[in-house]
């Protein structure tokens, strides 16, 4: 693990592997539009799952999930509905999850999957 950007990329890769090990199919990673980015868009065969991945090297500034502010939640919801509109996905339940990862140098990462976080 290197700098902050590399830690984030490594965390998203780990999150994808974790989700796939749970039987969740990842449809897209790092989907971008003018308004922002969605980390992971996936499905469990029933719902569309929009995952926000937060990776930290420690908890000195709080738990990773605490970084998902009300403003971030609102932006993720707007982006998700934009994605649904662009791909013309209709009448599918949408679930918003947070994957909070603490990955200290030299340690195995800890993953907390918060289903239906918001």
TrEMBL record:
<keyword id="KW-0255">Endonuclease</keyword>
<dbReference type="InterPro" id="IPR003509">
    <property type="entry name" value="UPF0102_YraN-like"/>
</dbReference>
<dbReference type="InterPro" id="IPR011856">
    <property type="entry name" value="tRNA_endonuc-like_dom_sf"/>
</dbReference>
<dbReference type="InterPro" id="IPR011335">
    <property type="entry name" value="Restrct_endonuc-II-like"/>
</dbReference>
<dbReference type="GO" id="GO:0004519">
    <property type="term" value="F:endonuclease activity"/>
</dbReference>
<protein>
    <recommendedName>
        <fullName>UPF0102 protein SAMN06265360_11648</fullName>
    </recommendedName>
</protein>
<dbReference type="Pfam" id="PF02021">
    <property type="entry name" value="UPF0102"/>
</dbReference>
<keyword id="KW-0378">Hydrolase</keyword>
<dbReference type="GO" id="GO:0003676">
    <property type="term" value="F:nucleic acid binding"/>
</dbReference>
<keyword id="KW-0540">Nuclease</keyword>
<comment type="similarity">
    <text>Belongs to the UPF0102 family.</text>
</comment>
């Amino acid at each position: 693990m290197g700098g902050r950007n590399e830690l984030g990329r490594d965390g998203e890769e780990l999150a994808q592997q974790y989700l796939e090990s749970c039987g969740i199919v990842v449809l897209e990673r790092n989907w971008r539009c003018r308004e922002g980015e969605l980390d992971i868009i996936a499905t469990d065969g029933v719902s569309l799952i929009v995952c926000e991945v937060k990776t930290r090297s420690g908890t000195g500034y709080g738990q990773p999930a605490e970084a998902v502010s009300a403003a971030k939640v609102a932006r993720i919801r707007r982006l998700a509905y934009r994605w649904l509109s662009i791909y013309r996905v209709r009448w599918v339940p949408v679930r918003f999850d947070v994957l909070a990862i603490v990955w200290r140098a030299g340690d195995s990462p800890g993953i907390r999957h918060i289903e239906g976080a918001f």
